[in-house]
């Protein structure tokens, strides 16, 4: 029972920091700041999904978290490549 409380507290902490990172995505002064913020938000969502899968014993959520993590990785690489090419033109 105490372990569940720790996991729930972790979820709340991750949710709070996700909201803070979302602010960085929306307001971020530069495009790279926004990309890093979006990557951070997605990673936190993956961790929350994995923790909820353990809490609820719904193991298919682990599969969803893994797929989201792969999409996050590929999109991060694509955005980095876009920013690199954009930097050469400027």
From TrEMBL:
It comes from the Archaea. Coiled coil: none annotated. GO terms for molecular function: sodium:proton antiporter activity. Keywords: Cell membrane, Membrane, Transmembrane, Transmembrane helix, Transport. Its main location: membrane. It comes from Pyrococcus yayanosii (strain CH1 / JCM 16557). It is found in: Cell membrane. This is Putative monovalent cation/H+ antiporter subunit F. Signal peptide: none annotated. Pfam families: MrpF_PhaF (PF04066). The keyword Flavoprotein does not apply. It is a multi-pass membrane protein. The chain crosses the membrane at residues 6-23, 35-56, 62-83. One of its GO terms (cellular component) is plasma membrane.
């Amino acid at each position: 029972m105490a372990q569940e409380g720790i996991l729930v507290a972790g979820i709340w902490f991750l949710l709070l920091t996700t909201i803070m990172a979302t602010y960085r995505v929306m307001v971020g002064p530069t495009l790279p700041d926004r990309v890093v913020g979006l990557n951070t938000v997605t990673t936190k969502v993956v961790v929350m999904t994995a923790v909820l899968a353990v809490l609820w014993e719904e193991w298919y959520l682990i599969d969803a978290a893994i797929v989201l993590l792969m999409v996050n990785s590929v999109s991060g690489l694509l955005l980095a490549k876009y920013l690199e090419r954009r930097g050469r033109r400027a």
